[in-house]
Amino acid sequence: MMIRAKSLLRKTVPEAAAYALLCVFGFVFVYPLIALALTSLMPAEDMFNPTVKFVPSRFTLGNYLLLLGRMRFFRALGYSAFLAGVSSGLQALSCGLMGYALSRYQFRLKKAYLALILACFIIPSQITMIPTYLGFSSLKLIGSPLSFFIPAVLGQGFKSPIFILIFYSFFNTIPKPLNEAAQIDGAGPARIFFTIFVPLAFPAFVLVFLFSFVWYWNETYLTVVYIGNSAKTLLNQMAGILAGLESEANYDPIAAKINIPVKMASAAICITPLLLMYLVMQRQFVESIDRVGITGE
């Protein structure tokens, strides 16, 4: 009995410790979302109530109704999804092609190209913003979604260098004799890529698309710079509404404090589509993280 009790104790203590750590880390990640949701449901007077710390005195949807009443939500949601979705899809395809070429072919200055890709990843986008804007202006792309789509097609979209390296690392895990076998069967380079390697690299494409979608969705500054005020994305419309509320309050500190629940409601509206997308694609996202993390042979 003593031996059985000791063996049981050896199993349960590590498991209990592991579950306790998981609960702690889970709470750290979930707490900001819970606080955001509860604050967004607070009435304005709760911000001056010292007894209200976490849970609102009463739940209200007034903050959400105020914001939704001042914007064309579904139009903004559709435009944001269109801009981020098309750009992310084009970027995933172009980065996949570049990563495949770097992985499967040998050519001059290959290491120099890899070094340039790393350099582009290190250089902040703010440094290249002005020459990029001048180039788009000369091509008359300013004010058009093409200023996002064309760089994505050419592998120059947001965070493209890291996506190219993800594909490069993933394709290195696939045995090269697979190319030789396909060539013996008469398949050309394009057919090999689209019929063999694209299905094999589906986890990498899912990962790149999701990450790229989030970056395009959250980008507000470059959207205004390249597309202008005509870019009625969800985040840009929300920023304009919040700026209008602050101007109406004449920057009064008390009024600004009242607007905190409204700001939390705006944040909840902007991140809810992303949370729903991750919820729907959770299984594919976890599998893609696991598969892309495989090291080379």
Give a description of the structure.
- It is a single chain.
- With 297 residues, this protein is an all-alpha fold.
- The protein folds into two domains: 2-60, no CATH class; 63-292, MetI-like fold.
- 75% of the residues lie in helices and 0% in strands.
- It has 15 helices and no strands.
- It has helices at residues 2-40, 62-69, 73-104, 110-122, 125-138, 146-153, 160-171, 177-184, 189-200, 202-218, 221-226, 234-248, 253-258, 260-280, 282-292.
- The radius of gyration is 25 Å and the shape is globular.
- The two termini are 48 Å apart.
- The mean pLDDT is 82.
Largest sheet: number of strands, sense, barrel closure: none
Number of domains: 2
Q: Which CATH-level-2 architecture of the largest domain?
A: Orthogonal Bundle
* CATH-assigned fold name of the largest domain: MetI-like fold
Q: Describe the global form.
A: globular
Q: Helix- and strand-based class?
A: mainly alpha
Q: For the residues shown, what is the average pLDDT?
A: 82
What name goes with the CATH superfamily of the largest domain? MetI-like
Write down the CATH class of the largest domain.
Answer: Mainly Alpha
Radius of gyration: 25 Å
Q: What oligomeric state best describes the polypeptide chains here?
A: single chain
